[in-house]
Design goal:
heterodimer, A: 112 residues, mainly beta, 5-stranded antiparallel beta sheet, B: 112 residues, 4-stranded antiparallel beta sheet
């Protein structure tokens, strides 16, 4: 089946630092989505990307849809304690009937 | 985005029993999905809940184990049947809006 390789698996950073995580695949995707999941909650959609090369921001978050359509990255600037959580990338394409394929997640821990 | 609620939020069940999880959306939606998230893992799609017809199951999931109902465009249920400890997971419903999906808060199931 289709797989998304998400890295890093976990991060432990200082408050105020910038964070970067990415997802890659051997398949082409039409849509890339980035979610954040807090403990005991469902994933919350942060950013949606629809075009190759697209760069989209949501507050301190910035995500890009890779030119090859096989990758995406998410940046968080000036991290704060509430950024703690698990970040998932997800992609969809016609081959998979536009259903979502999820990455394994990046666990973000912030040292205050 | 749609507001999604799930019941129960958590449960502890005996092996061999069944649990039905409800998902309610505050607006009519065409696409509803059920996911499983095993401890420390990413999300895995169980099935697409189709209104007025049988659900479409992903590889590795069968109707006898995970029967799904979708009586209208705002409600769906997932039953976890004949439970074993391996079924201990978070079960999440989601709704599709365009190419995006929005998730409910999840049901945390522990099977003893």
């Amino acid at each position: 089946g289709q797989q998304l390789n998400q890295s890093p698996q976990s991060m432990f950073i200082q408050e105020g630092e910038d964070v970067s995580m990415n997802c890659t695949s051997s398949s082409i995707f039409n849509t890339w989505l980035w979610y954040k999941q807090d403990p005991g909650e469902g994933p919350v959609l942060l950013i949606a990307l629809y075009k190759a090369g697209e760069l989209t921001s949501n507050g301190r978050l910035t995500a890009q849809f890779g030119i090859t359509r096989k990758d995406s990255f998410l940046n968080i600037s000036a991290s704060i304690p509430s950024d703690v959580g698990i970040y998932f990338c997800a992609g969809s394409n016609l081959e998979y009937g536009n259903k979502l394929v999820f990455g394994a997640g990046t666990i973000l821990r912030v040292k205050s | 985005s749609a507001v999604i609620s799930q019941k129960p939020s958590r449960d502890i069940c005996q092996r061999g029993t069944s649990l039905t999880i409800q998902c309610q959306v505050d607006s009519q939606v065409t696409m509803m999905f059920w996911y499983r998230q095993q401890p420390g893992q990413s999300l895995t799609l169980i099935a697409t809940a189709n209104q007025g017809s049988e659900a479409t199951y992903e590889s590795g999931f069968v109707i006898d184990k995970f029967p799904i109902s979708r009586p209208n465009l705002t409600f769906s249920t997932l039953t976890v049947s004949n439970m074993s400890p391996e079924d201990s997971s978070i079960y999440l419903c989601s709704v599709g809006q365009g190419y995006e999906q929005y998730f409910g808060p999840g049901t945390r199931l522990t099977v003893t």
